[in-house]
Amino acid sequence: MLIATLFPLTVLASTVTYDLEASWMRASPDGFERSVIGINGEWPLPTLYATKGDTVTVTLKNSLGNVSTSLHWHGIFQNGTTNMDGSVGASQCSIPPGSSLTYNFTLNQSGTYWYHSHLKGQYPDGMRAPFIIADPDMPFKNDYDEELVISLSDWYHDFTMDLAKSFLSVGNPTGAEPVPDSALMNETQNLNVKVAPGKTYLIRLVNLGAFANQRFWIEGHQMKVVEVDGVWTEPKDASIIYLAVAQRCSVLVSTTNSTGANFPMVTSMDTDLFDAIPDGLQWNTTGWLVYDDSKPKPAPKVLDTFDDFDDFTLVPQDRLPRFPEPDHTITLDLYMDNLGDGANYAFFSGQTYVSPKVPTIYSVMTLGEDAANVSVYGDNTNAYILEKGQVIEVIINNQDPGKHPVHLHGHNFQVVAREAADTGDAPANLTDAGTPGLPMRRDTITLWPTSYARVRFIADNPGVWLFHCHIEWHTISGLIATFIEAPLEVQKSLKIPDDHLAVCKAEGVPTAGNAAGNTVNHFDLTGENKSPAPLPAGFTARGIVALVFSCIAAFLGCAVIAWYGYAPLKQ
Ligand code: C2O
């Protein structure tokens, strides 16, 4: 089964219009039936198509009844339209049941993207699909006969926010993330992809998952990488694509010259990410390149080792050289720790993100000159002001033993350094040694365990842009920073449409003032949304672990111990 596609309602010169209505429906992609978020009565969601230069108008109607929603256009730069980015709390208010919101933006890029809800924990309930932007002048257009889109994803049987409740609780002090129930390709299993012999296909891979990075390979077929995250690259051979959540990769694949056999195509979740592997977990799913339906569909061979393609070696097809030394360096230390409620949170340099009372874009629009002062954005938004035209370098020190796919809105970035696992923090004096002169660019990179990366971009896109780990569990536990780029420029050029203000009103969310909603004293943050206080002195994360485990061991005494243990944690 190929994923459904939705062609635009109208194609007028260069305006594409989509009317989307979100509602709950039932689906069983892996044999287990559950409620999922569909669009226009369909799930999987339609793949959307547009062409570079188009103006896209999408009206999203929320007919979910019980929950708010939004749509984010992952990887789309939104030049001049930061308020169309779809990030709830940063660029808009959530859309309550019964309300509609129109997204309107112009595409000045091409390649493989996706769209998903950007309201805490919602997209893994099914609100996610590819978004393909064609380009009549694309570099490889003469090198293939046909295009295919294959999404890879993990899948859960429970609602994300139900899982999130136990994930982010004193009962899970180590922050073990919920393990997916299965893996999917094009939101199904046993996917059949019909191909013809002697042809070349451009296969657009998109990882729509919540947590699991995936390895993808096709038996008997070499892949040639030509795109990562909307950036065309010089072609490079690959046998296994390692695709983190939110990443995309296009590969050219030539089919064999006969219809004598069908070939397994595998996506396999990186189980290193899982704290424990539940009994019976099928972390792979297999599909087939089908040359002849009447021939058998063989089971895949078991691989002992993975020859992962290293995206760091890619060279962009436009050969854009490394940006000059940065004007502004932001260092983000990434780690996990427990707060006073006993739960395990994620931090960038000491702050765990909490959505402000006023979505950040509305603070930018209403604070006049003070919008250029970072303190108005509050203590828990991890806010940084970027000045127009500056070369920005972000150094991310991953001090956590897990892998983290980090994503920047509104830009792609050059990956000027990325180290292997266990190489520690970035050295104090960063040298150019070992950094590529023509670094690959993309909008999401994987940080390897306890190591670092340096990414660079030019602050040429005024707006409010989130920088976050794309593992949905970690966005829930606070692994988000807010980059506020040229706020005074944004004030001058941006107009907020009435329907955007109307959904805020319907949600009861203020659209003026600082992060706390204070319109009089911009530096008074009384009443702002805050993370829980730190643990009381002397009460360590280890103490919580011990408490929880002794609780499980001594079942009879559990109630008393829990009562005793919880009491001092109350604020
Ligand atoms: Cu795929 Cu913050 O987004």
From TrEMBL:
<dbReference type="Pfam" id="PF00394">
    <property type="entry name" value="Cu-oxidase"/>
</dbReference>
<dbReference type="InterPro" id="IPR045087">
    <property type="entry name" value="Cu-oxidase_fam"/>
</dbReference>
<keyword id="KW-0479">Metal-binding</keyword>
<dbReference type="InterPro" id="IPR011706">
    <property type="entry name" value="Cu-oxidase_C"/>
</dbReference>
<dbReference type="Pfam" id="PF07732">
    <property type="entry name" value="Cu-oxidase_3"/>
</dbReference>
<dbReference type="GO" id="GO:0004322">
    <property type="term" value="F:ferroxidase activity"/>
</dbReference>
<keyword id="KW-1003">Cell membrane</keyword>
<dbReference type="InterPro" id="IPR033138">
    <property type="entry name" value="Cu_oxidase_CS"/>
</dbReference>
<feature type="domain" description="Plastocyanin-like">
    <location>
        <begin position="353"/>
        <end position="487"/>
    </location>
</feature>
<protein>
    <submittedName>
        <fullName>Multicopper oxidase</fullName>
    </submittedName>
</protein>
<dbReference type="GO" id="GO:0005507">
    <property type="term" value="F:copper ion binding"/>
</dbReference>
<keyword id="KW-0677">Repeat</keyword>
<dbReference type="GO" id="GO:0033215">
    <property type="term" value="P:reductive iron assimilation"/>
</dbReference>
<dbReference type="InterPro" id="IPR011707">
    <property type="entry name" value="Cu-oxidase-like_N"/>
</dbReference>
<keyword id="KW-0472">Membrane</keyword>
<dbReference type="GO" id="GO:0010106">
    <property type="term" value="P:cellular response to iron ion starvation"/>
</dbReference>
<feature type="transmembrane region" description="Helical">
    <location>
        <begin position="544"/>
        <end position="566"/>
    </location>
</feature>
<dbReference type="InterPro" id="IPR001117">
    <property type="entry name" value="Cu-oxidase_2nd"/>
</dbReference>
<feature type="domain" description="Plastocyanin-like">
    <location>
        <begin position="23"/>
        <end position="136"/>
    </location>
</feature>
<comment type="similarity">
    <text>Belongs to the multicopper oxidase family.</text>
</comment>
<keyword id="KW-0732">Signal</keyword>
<dbReference type="InterPro" id="IPR008972">
    <property type="entry name" value="Cupredoxin"/>
</dbReference>
<keyword id="KW-0812">Transmembrane</keyword>
<keyword id="KW-1133">Transmembrane helix</keyword>
<dbReference type="GO" id="GO:0033573">
    <property type="term" value="C:high-affinity iron permease complex"/>
</dbReference>
<keyword id="KW-0560">Oxidoreductase</keyword>
<keyword id="KW-0325">Glycoprotein</keyword>
<keyword id="KW-0186">Copper</keyword>
<dbReference type="Pfam" id="PF07731">
    <property type="entry name" value="Cu-oxidase_2"/>
</dbReference>
<dbReference type="InterPro" id="IPR044130">
    <property type="entry name" value="CuRO_2_Fet3-like"/>
</dbReference>
<feature type="domain" description="Plastocyanin-like">
    <location>
        <begin position="146"/>
        <end position="293"/>
    </location>
</feature>
<dbReference type="InterPro" id="IPR002355">
    <property type="entry name" value="Cu_oxidase_Cu_BS"/>
</dbReference>
